[in-house]
Amino acid sequence: MISLTEHVAAFRLAWGLVRVVVSGVLILLYGMTRVDAGTVQADTTLQVLHWWTSASERKAATLLASRLADEGVAWRDVGIPGGAGIGAGKVLKSRVLANDAPEVTQIIGVSIREWADLGFLLELDKVATANKWSNSFFPTIQTLIQHRKHVVAAPLGIHRINTLFYNRKLFNSLKLSPPESWDELVLLAARLKAAGVIPLAQSSEPWQVATLFENLILAESGPDYHRELFVKQNAQAVFDKRFTQALERLRLMKNWMNNPVDERPWTDVVRQFSKNEAAMMITGDWVKGELNELGFATDEAFSCTPMPGTGKYHLYSVDTLSMFTNDYSRVLAQEKLARLVATPAVQADYNAVKGSVSVRRDADPARMDSCARASWHAFAQGAATQAPSLVHRMATDESSKDAIIAVIHRYFIDATVTPADTQARLAAMFKTFGSNKKQNP
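Above: the chain's sequence. Below: its structure in token form.
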């Protein structure tokens, strides 16, 4: 029987071969089709591939399309359903292999570097320099959008993943206060269950389970240990007692959810929360944008607070757009979009709809609601308080992320799997990842 780590190693090897082949084809095509942007009639239409398909996400995309239209460029929308961009990532790879890449794509985190390594992404240095991005953006954002000293992505907004949403109606009726520690959270869940209320709205969808788990890791240990696990992938760190405790707490929290915990899109979980059928959600602040779009006002129907134990920290994901080179006929339009999304006005309006916060250091907190202000101020404290999300591609590459999520998900859904089993699997996996990195630097 082939072990899980062997499956992972085989997958990574296969993807590496695909990348080599695609890179070779790209070099050939690049040499045959490159056209000087100054000699080409600029096309004023951009096809934009993304995964913003919920009500609030569509509203945010429509806002960007409207502002782009004001610049004389049409936004051709290609929204691919699927939480965490899983479906959109598959579509993008298929289209690139078919030599049909969209002009603009939502690519985030480590994936930016992977596509830039293949030479597909347009360099936006001229836009970045003219608009003083290096002075305007938080340092973490500036680092994220660069590859080999070139800017290859335009940042949109920062999501805080360690957000606990609580239903004010339920909390007020039971005279409850939002929890600030793990012990308070446990007592709160017990009181809610005693009152016949489901404490936590949650899906068993793998990425949603893993999001909850990395919240527990951050709460238990802080950003340094979170990075040790998911960025450095230190096999020894998996056997730390803090990891064991996070696993045990994940299993305990399963008792606070629907029974059974069914697999649902995140939008369905939000609807359960909005209908007073569950008291809390622990996930990213895109939920705020969705609740607002459903007619629920922040600090009236619901409020948010950091996941207990993470008040000083920011588990982050950053939305970014990258431009594909293709035949260089749309460079002027692509540069217009890149410039536009980073302007102070668009940053403020877009993030207010999306639930995220501005990537700009000069953003005005007075224009933000209480949830956004807390997120923006926490991120502004710098790298020592920031933790890059595993689930949302900020910490590691796509194949490693998927493999780690699969192990955590298996532990969550199968009660016969022990913490020790899970730790052994992950440790072996991390060793395999390390070996592959040495062989393919």
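Residues 1-41 have pLDDT under 50 and may be disordered.
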